[in-house]
């Protein structure tokens, strides 16, 4: 019990330092799922930081394989002696106990996140915006699906909202990290996702992680970004195009929410509903619930929409200069903006 308590405090401190928005938004996740939420986000931090911690593809692949094996063992109740794996094992055990074995965390969704992170270890370019959206779906949307499972919830409506919000968050995160990837610091053991290297360090090769079709349309050349940074021709136009796609997903989610709260239906189908892990035969509760009830129960999990919208608003205020220092910190308004949004059930 003492080890578990110490691990919880250590992971909370890590969350606050390296993923401050998620730490703040934890408040709005139902208490029964908060431990799972922190464990899932800590897992994401560890896997995402592998790219920063090593420039050797073989070592990176080995660390990803460690996480595949760690997830298998953690969900089976025999985690390795690794803090995040122990937290995940505890979250999985608690979920099964609360639901009498009817609900569980999906191994395949954890594996999807790992596989996608490994695919982009060496910063290959996104060929188009659709590829960037797929990346966001397979990482940030999937983290939301896992958190919904921890409630537990198996709801097409909640997953549909989570998909749009996760895509918006993933796309915005790629934009936020663009300076860091273009001008990478030397490899380090810990990664601050919000911290940007100001200059290329250690001779590491940078990359401009914008979709190639968007760069071509805007006339952006990678070597000009390396030389001129924010003043590279066409860069702000390209960032605007990508940010608009993220904003579109948030607008869609808000329209869905408004329609559901008014007693209506959504205007389009959930494109991922036929995937294996999206199963909606039961909600793992004593009685079936309506889409409106599902949204009410899931709302706290969907709160990343607030932080993402705030960052996109700040990006617009600096005229889509993704290198602006004003974008490198968490907005001080996030706690009260989140409180306002949660109480009014608006993103």
Order of helices and strands: HHHHHHHHHHHHHHHH
Low-confidence stretches: 1-17, 189-203
- At CATH's second level, what is the architecture? Orthogonal Bundle
CATH-defined fold name: Farnesyl Diphosphate Synthase
Straight-line N-to-C gap? 38 Å
Number of helical elements: 16
Helix content: 55-70%
Strand content: under 5%
Radius of gyration: 20 Å
| Strand runs, count | 0
Overall spatial form: globular
Report the biggest beta sheet as strand number plus sense, adding barrel if it closes.
Answer: none
CATH class, named Mainly Alpha
- Give the CATH superfamily: Farnesyl Diphosphate Synthase
Task: Find the structural class using helix and strand composition.
Answer: mainly alpha
Whole-number total of structural domains: 1
Provide structural commentary.
The radius of gyration is 20 Å and the shape is globular. It contains 16 helices and no strands. The chain has one domain (2-344): Orthogonal Bundle (Farnesyl Diphosphate Synthase), CATH 1.10.600.10. The chain has helices spanning 2-18, 20-25, 34-48, 50-53, 57-75, 83-98, 107-119, 129-149, 156-176, 178-182, 212-218, 222-228, 235-261, 291-298, 304-317, 334-344. By secondary structure, the protein is mostly helical. Helices cover 61% and strands 0% of the residues. Mean pLDDT is 89; it is low at 1-17 and 189-203. Helix 1 (2-18) crosses helix 6 (83-98) and helix 9 runs antiparallel to helix 13 (235-261).
């Amino acid at each position: 019990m003492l080890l578990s308590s110490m691990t919880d405090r250590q992971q909370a401190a890590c969350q606050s330092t390296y993923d401050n928005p998620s730490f703040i938004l934890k408040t709005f996740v139902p208490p029964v799922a908060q431990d799972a939420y922190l464990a899932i986000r800590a897992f994401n931090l560890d896997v995402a930081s592998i790219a920063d911690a090593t420039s050797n593809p073989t070592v990176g692949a080995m660390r990803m394989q460690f996480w595949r094996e760690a997830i298998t063992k953690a969900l089976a109740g025999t985690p390795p002696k690794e803090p995040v794996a122990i937290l995940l094992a505890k979250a999985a055990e608690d979920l099964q106990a609360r639901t009498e074995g009817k609900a569980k965390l999906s191994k395949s969704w954890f594996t999807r996140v790992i596989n996608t992170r490994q695919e982009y270890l060496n910063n290959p370019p996104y060929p188009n915006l659709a590829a960037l959206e797929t990346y966001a779906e397979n990482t940030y949307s999937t983290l939301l699906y896992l958190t919904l499972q921890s409630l537990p919830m198996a709801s097409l409506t909640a997953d549909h909202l989570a998909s749009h919000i996760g895509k918006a968050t993933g796309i915005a995160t790629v934009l936020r990290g663009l300076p860091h990837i273009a001008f990478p610091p030397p490899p380090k053991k810990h990664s601050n996702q919000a911290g940007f290297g100001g200059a290329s360090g250690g001779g590491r090769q940078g990359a401009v992680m914008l979709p190639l079709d968007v760069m071509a349309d805007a006339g952006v050349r990678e070597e000009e970004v390396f030389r001129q940074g924010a003043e590279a021709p066409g860069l702000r136009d390209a960032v605007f195009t990508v940010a608009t796609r993220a904003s579109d997903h948030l607008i869609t989610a808000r329209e869905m929410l408004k329609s559901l709260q008014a007693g209506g239906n959504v205007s389009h189908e959930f494109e991922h509903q036929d995937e294996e892990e999206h199963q909606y035969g039961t909600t793992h509760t004593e009685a079936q619930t309506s889409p409106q009830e599902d949204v009410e129960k899931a709302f706290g999990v969907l709160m990343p929409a607030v932080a993402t919208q705030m960052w996109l608003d700040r990006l617009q205020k600096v005229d889509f200069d993704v290198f602006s220092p004003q974008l490198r910190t968490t907005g001080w308004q996030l706690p009260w903006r989140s409180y306002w949004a949660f109480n009014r059930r608006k993103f």
